Amino acid sequence: MAVSYRRVLLKLGGEALAGPDGFGINPDQATEVATLIKEIQDHDIEIAIVLGAGNIWRGQIGLVYGMDRATADHMGMLGTVINALALADALERIGVHSRVQTAIEMRAVAEPYIRLRAIAHLEKGRVVILAAGTGNPYFTTDTAAALRAMEIDADLVIKATKVDGVYSEDPLVNPQAQRFDHLTYIEALNMRVRVLDSTAISLCMDNHLPIIVLDLWQPGALIKAISGEPVGTMISN
Fold it and tell me: Closest Cα to residue 141, out of 236, 85, 76, 208?
């Protein structure tokens, strides 16, 4: 198989590790995700991962009850560390060496995020899981994924979700919604696509970093993405 990308940043929602109800961490689900990651790493792809924490905590819930935004966001960042440790363990159990790095220092459980150290791990064939977002409130894990992708010189951002691309409307509400094979950054920004926030898209646009939005659970989707085959929705120039 011809590989089109050398190093990719994979953005996963926390729900990827959850059970059927969408909450918590299901060890079998974590193993399934780890297996999908191993499949693309076996093609000599260097992989960094940014995880969300929607399976543990959603900051918007706290805001409804009057919680301080910074507090709610910091809770979400800590949730991503829990997810990162669970995924790292699942990877190690199937023979994939990994490292967890965090934007908020907690040396007892993970390395602090250091750009050159992350790159060194990638070059040694380790999967690097980048947790705690950017370390700052008011920024989503989508934005963290775009930022880290640029810092580690990734060739591609893959946003892996439960939906097989970007649609004109929510396909669950309108089954006739149009799915796009390709969007320019400007088109995606003007559409205010819900699967990726505007700050992340703008960062990728400014640095000419392509994004693919795909369904994590669609058989072969990740393999198609790294080989340059059409899959999901490509957002680029």
Answer: 76
Measured between alpha carbons, how far is 131 from 146 in angstroms, rounded to an integer? 13
The answer for residues whose C-beta is within 8 angstroms of residue 200's C-beta and 6 or more apart is 140, 142, 143, 145, 146
Structural domains in the chain (count): 1
Note the pLDDT tens digit of each residue in 87-100: 999 999 999 999 99
CATH code, 194: 3.40.1160.10
- Looking at the whole model, is its pTM more than 0.90? yes
Of 204, 194, 78, 84, the closest CA to residue 147 belongs to 204
Residue 1 within any structural domain of the chain: no
Parent domain of 109: 7-236
Residue range 13-32: average pLDDT? 94
